[in-house]
């Protein structure tokens, strides 16, 4: 072993519990801001006092050192205060993400015999367990009755601080037990390297159910730095994170490569005075180059939960030396062979970690603990354990450690640690499943997917409606596993391939349909010829993770979807300075055609509203108007699933090129689309449809076309509510109407919650966020950072379309309306049955239920059923 690598000895207060150190820091700088959350700020004193009071309240439930308390609340300062309060009682906390399935949280509470579950009114009574439920809101009402002095519980460095559950290969998650001294050693080492001082501001983005959140929440409290805490929605939004990093002048942020990519993809191009801590999975080369160009320091952080957050760190300066660096304080790393002997320097072996970060083991799992935490034969000290990471590694000539991937089937998907066996176990219990193997694939960089390979118990190798099976499995798994563990795709297999020595041959498992490369035009590969073809093919290869893309290869047949389309167009714009509409991809979907498009000068690029999505076919064409997202690429899957002879066109908004003035009067928007349709097909008959807000536009279009004497055979709404304008109502009437609606919306929320708690919470929090933002924009128009480029135009068009809708008076039209209604409800509506259309369609409303909710009706697998119902409706309309 490289001399010096493990000489990491450093003094630290091994016997002092973390919260005592934090209380000391709070005493030194009581008035300094400790936490900022939205517009709220809390000082060190406020945080520490509130935690002490809450601890006293929790102690009234007979909590003793060594007990366990679960915490399942949304991200907020109270979440941090509660964590601190639990530590002050002497109990260990179990961080529970309330978004996880109920069963999984209940298992964790039961497995740990948690005495208390701290949650909030929102989740009241939601989790069933033996733990006493303490509601944060109730506790907050009471805590002022307690003194703010530190509770005099006896807690030392040897007591447990938390139990963190991670995916388990035998089918159930396992709880890693971390003591105070593990955490204190780790944090004090981090304060030195990569370093944090009281001048720092850290943007905290990680869910508390991931151990790395410990750095984000406790390191600032220990060093006097400030936490800028994000809510759940912001934490998943690259754009919002970047805005926060800039506006709040964040100096340190820690995240997994997935989150960094998210921020880069939305156009982070300025250099920031930001120390980037990237960890949790391998740091890819391309990310290094992009991040080092935009931040002040980049650090690669490595370590498993079992050795307390991070065990090695490395300051990365360029992409030639990607290592995980050297062990942190009081930590040793060994590269061992199968006999647990050290390999020679430079040879590959398994990474074992020893020292003060090593956990106590897995809760209630003695066998698993002794399998993974083994005696340290190198030091030979009795009781000294080293943790077997399952990672392969070697020591480089520069004396650093290189991590070379996994030995087992643990994977990381979007930063989450997953044991594939746990998913396979859950799948094998599903109906019709005989055998299941799950693999994480990243056929397109940046789009990691879990794929389930299934052998059916019936032995069938062809099933007419395999989708119905896969949907049922996905639904069942969502009830048991966190969403990120549910496979995205399934492949039906005759048999699972086996290697000569009888193991599952994962490498022989085929890629699912999405990446099936079906070459068009004679199935021949023709290499790019011109500079533009090379540019387009190169970008597709990079963005879609495919090799050898030829000039006749088709974007959609290669599995292209709307997100990757956005990236491709942004990249092409960067390289050539030319902005092409996303919809160009419909007509110019091969490399050859798209490259030819780039030859045109900017003025010649068409930004017409009418977009041919699937122009071929003998049937009556269908014209679909964009929804609020403005993206007509959304309709692609629907169109492709319709009859071969069914032409489909999309209508995109005016102004997307940033040159044309967007329209803000409904009648004018509709007239513009009608004109383009009639120019394209002067005779008819016509079928018009609109998605969401687009439904209102389609309605006005049909009205205008009928007035012109045109034959409108079908008018369809894709989940559009007939929102009548309130422009002509008196102020009093408006107040009464909206107030009453609000009451009904609130009253209906529990019904939605019972049907689907996760979706309801997501939707409601997004809604609240949006409203807050709206008010903020109104009150502080100068403080709102203006977006640039295409994003600014999109926002502008969206705002104007909504203004158009607000002013638009719906009047009865002599027509039948075909209403395609999303089966799942996301919000309260006064008229769930006909979505308010009855008074406006004089010939009646025909309702067609389609799977999914408002935002997912076009997404697979819902697109197929939707296409089927829509095609039947169209075919009936022409009869
Ligand atoms: P977790 O317990 O979720 O922190 O996952 C630990 C595992 O993630 C390690 O055993 C590695 O396989 C992987 N990992 C974490 N950080 C890195 C890194 N910087 N480079 C490579 N792999 C990493």
Automatic annotation (TrEMBL):
Domain of life: Bacteria
Cofactor(s) the protein requires to work: pantetheine 4'-phosphate
SMART domains: PKS_PP
Carrier domain mapped to chain residues: 527-602
Gene Ontology biological-process entries: amino acid activation for nonribosomal peptide biosynthetic process; secondary metabolite biosynthetic process
A Pfam family of this chain: AMP-binding
Gene Ontology MF terms in the entry: phosphopantetheine binding
Alphabetical keyword list: Phosphopantetheine, Phosphoprotein
CDD domains in alphabetical order: A_NRPS_Ta1_like
Family: Belongs to the ATP-dependent AMP-binding enzyme family.
Protein known as: Amino acid adenylation domain-containing protein
Organism of origin: Mucilaginibacter phyllosphaerae
């Amino acid at each position: 072993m490289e001399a010096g690598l493990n000489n990491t000895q450093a003094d630290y207060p091994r016997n002092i519990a973390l919260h005592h150190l934090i209380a000391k820091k709070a005493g030194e700088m009581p008035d300094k801001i400790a936490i900022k959350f939205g517009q709220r700020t809390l000082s060190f004193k406020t945080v520490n006092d509130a935690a002490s009071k809450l601890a006293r309240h929790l102690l009234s439930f007979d909590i003793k050192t060594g007990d366990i308390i679960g915490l399942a609340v949304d991200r907020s300062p109270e979440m941090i205060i509660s964590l601190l309060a639990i530590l002050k009682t002497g109990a260990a906390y179990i961080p529970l993400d309330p978004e996880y399935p109920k069963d999984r949280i209940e298992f964790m509470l039961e497995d740990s015999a948690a005495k208390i579950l701290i949650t909030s009114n929102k989740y009241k009574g939601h989790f069933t367990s033996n733990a006493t439920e303490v509601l944060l809101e109730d506790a907050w009402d009471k805590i002022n009755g307690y003194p703010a002095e530190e509770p005099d519980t006896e807690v030392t460095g040897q007591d447990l601080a938390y139990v963190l559950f991670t995916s388990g290969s035998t089918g159930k998650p396992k709880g890693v037990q971390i003591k105070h001294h593990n955490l204190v050693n780790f944090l004090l080492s981090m304060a030195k390297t990569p370093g944090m001082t009281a001048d720092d501001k850290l943007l905290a983005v990680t869910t508390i159910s991931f151990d790395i959140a410990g750095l984000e929440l406790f390191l600032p409290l220990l060093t006097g730095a400030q936490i800028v805490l994000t809510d759940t929605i912001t934490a998943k939004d690259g754009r919002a994170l970047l805005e926060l990093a800039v506006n709040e002048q964040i100096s340190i942020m820690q995240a997994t490569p997935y989150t960094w990519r998210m921020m880069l993809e939305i156009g982070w191009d300025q250099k920031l005075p930001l120390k980037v801590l990237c960890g949790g999975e391998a740091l890819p080369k391309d990310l290094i180059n992009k991040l080092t160009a935009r931040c002040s320091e980049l650090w690669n952080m490595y370590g498993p939960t079992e050795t307390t957050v991070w065990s090695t760190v490395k300051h990365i300066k360029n992409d030639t030396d990607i290592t995980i660096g050297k062990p942190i304080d009081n930590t040793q790393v060994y590269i061992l062979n199968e006999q647990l002997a050290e390999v020679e320097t430079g040879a590959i072996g398994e990474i074992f970690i020893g020292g003060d970060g090593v956990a106590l083991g897995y809760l209630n799992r003695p066998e698993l603990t002794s399998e993974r935490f083994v005696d340290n034969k190198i030091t030979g000290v009795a009781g000294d354990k080293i943790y077997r990471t399952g990672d392969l590694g070697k020591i480089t000539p520069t004396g650093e450690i290189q991590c070379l991937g996994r030995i087992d089937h643990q994977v990381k998907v979007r930063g989450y640690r997953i044991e594939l066996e746990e998913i396979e176990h859950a799948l094998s219990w599903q109906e019709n499943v005989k055998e299941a193997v799950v693999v994480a694939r990243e056929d397109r960089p940046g789009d990691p997917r879990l794929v389930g390979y299934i052998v059916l118990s019936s032995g069938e190798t062809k099933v007419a409606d395999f989708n119905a099976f896969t949907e049922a499995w996905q639904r069942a798994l969502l009830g048991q596993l966190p969403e990120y563990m549910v496979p995205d795709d399934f492949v039906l297999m005759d048999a699972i391939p086996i290697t000569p020595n009888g193991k599952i041959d994962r490498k022989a498992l085929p890629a699912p349909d999405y990446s099936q490369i079906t070459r068009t035009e004679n199935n021949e590969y023709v290499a790019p010829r011109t500079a533009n073809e090379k540019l387009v093919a190169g970008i597709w290869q990079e963005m879609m993770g495919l090799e050898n893309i030829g000039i006749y290869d088709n974007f959609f047949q290669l599995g292209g979807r709307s997100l990757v389309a956005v990236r491709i167009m942004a990249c092409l714009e960067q390289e050539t300075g030319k902005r092409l509409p996303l919809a160009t991809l419909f007509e110019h979907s091969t490399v050859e055609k798209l490259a030819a498009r780039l030859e045109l000068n900017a003025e010649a690029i068409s930004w017409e509203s009418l977009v041919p999505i699937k122009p071929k076919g003998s049937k009556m064409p269908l014209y679909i108007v964009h929804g609020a997202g403005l993206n007509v690429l959304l309709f692609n899957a629907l169109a492709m699933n319709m009859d071969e002879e069914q032409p489909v066109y999309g209508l995109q908004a005016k102004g997307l090129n940033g040159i044309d003035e967007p329209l803000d009067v409904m009648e004018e928007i509709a007239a513009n689309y009608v004109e383009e349709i009639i120019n394209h097909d002067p005779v008819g008959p016509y079928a018009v449809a609109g998605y969401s807000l687009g439904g209102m536009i389609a309605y006005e279009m049909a009205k205008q076309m009928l007035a012109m004497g045109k034959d409108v055979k079908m008018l369809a709404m894709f989940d559009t509510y007939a929102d009548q304008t309130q422009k002509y109502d008196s102020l009093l009437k408006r107040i009464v109407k909206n107030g009453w609606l609000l009451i009904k919306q609130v009253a209906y929320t529990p019904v939605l919650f019972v049907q689907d708690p996760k979706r309801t919470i997501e939707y409601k929090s997004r809604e609240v966020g949006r409203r807050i933002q709206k008010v903020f924009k109104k009150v502080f128009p100068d403080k709102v950072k203006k977006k640039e480029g295409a994003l600014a135009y999109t926002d502008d068009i969206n705002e104007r379309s909504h203004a158009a809708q607000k002013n638009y008076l719906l009047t009865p039209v002599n027509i039948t309306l075909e209403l395609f209604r999303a089966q799942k409800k996301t919000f309260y509506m006064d008229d769930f049955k006909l979505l308010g259309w009855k008074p406006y369609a004089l010939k009646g409303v025909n309702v067609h239920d389609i799977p999914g909710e408002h935002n997912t009706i076009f997404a697979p697998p819902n697109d197929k059923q939707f296409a089927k119902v829509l095609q039947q409706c169209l075919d009936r309309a022409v009869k």
